[in-house]
């Protein structure tokens, strides 16, 4: 059997620069995946890493290393994971959102519209509802709404209606059957776009199945409590729904920008993060050429201040 190529870490140099690993410190890699970030952090300094992943196969692949502690679970529950390890605070928290190449490339996981497999899409196969459950049981309006909201798909109603018609005949069991239903529901003019017709629908289902945006919000809120003064929050996101959550969080908890010379904005809340680089950072042209996943990547990072949150 040929082995799927390992995941190539995205924006690794930029992530390391933002995280700035130092001896004696502790970092959380909330999206361990193939361990690319973790390995680089452990190589960069004599530090410790807590690697989190909700996919058991990622945990099973982790190397033995006395400075690495692995946790099977969701990064949205990071505070609970740290309590379980008796750790009060950390010096950095990095997230590389979404799915890994291993997950996409394994048809049996059901993430890919190009590879046949069961409609699963759960990163953690030990719990929760699968894409099969959504596609075969949700009402038409709810399906249309999520495809619109999380897929940003303007043909969401046509797609939901086609799903309902198809499943009235027999359950929609596999990725390729669903991809075909979606493709046929779209207007012919869609064919001229580079994107596979099912891209947005699959993205929407994956986000809902894994509660991805809620996970991100929980993790960001947790970062306020778990990062020590000077601790770094580093997030690599891959679509605008994710990036806008990170951007709004850093705006709401960062130094106030805006207002004007005549009407300066008054700061009435504590500044919990500073952002040395205010804008998002993109992958270099060279990396984007070599790794298509990097093309949509946006990195934002911030440094926790000494302000504590009122109890
Ligand atoms: C893009 S890959 C990370 C790749 C990693 N940075 C590397 O260099 O190999 C994302 C990984 O995060 C995991 N993941 C995504 N959302 C998660 C969540 N809410 N909690 C825990 N793990 C999550 C996925 O299972 C996947 O293994």
Structure description:
By secondary structure, the protein is an alpha/beta fold. The chain has two domains: 12-102 and 212-304, 3-Layer(aba) Sandwich (Rossmann fold); 125-209, DNA polymerase, domain 1, CATH 1.10.150. The protein contains 13 helices and eight strands. Strands 1, 2, 3, 4, 5, 6, 7 and 8 form an eight-stranded mixed β-sheet that branches. Helix 3 links the parallel strand 2 (48-53) and strand 3 (68-72). Helix 7 crosses helix 8 (156-169). It starts with 11 loop residues before the first helix and ends in a 7-residue tail after the last strand. It binds S-adenosylmethionine. S-adenosylmethionine is lined by residues 7, 9, 31, 33-37, 52-55, 58, 74-76, 96, 98-100, 123, 215.
State the shape. Answer: globular
Top CATH class of the largest domain: Alpha Beta
- CATH homologous superfamily grouping of the largest domain: Vaccinia Virus protein VP39
Which regions contain 5 or more consecutive residues with pLDDT less than 50?
none
Measure the end-to-end span: 55 Å
CATH level 3 topology of the largest domain: Rossmann fold
SSE run: HEHEHEHEHHHHHHHEHEEHE
The overall strand count is: 8
Mean pLDDT, nearest integer?
Answer: 93
- How would a crystallographer describe the biggest sheet? 8 strands, mixed
Number of helices: 13
- Supply the CATH architecture of the largest domain: 3-Layer(aba) Sandwich
Strand content bin: 5-15%
CA-atom Rg in angstroms: 21 Å
Instruction: Give the helix proportion (percent range).
Output: 40-55%
Bound molecules: S-adenosylmethionine
How many domains make up the 3D coordinates? 2
Summing up helix and strand content along with how strands pair, one would put the structural category as alpha/beta
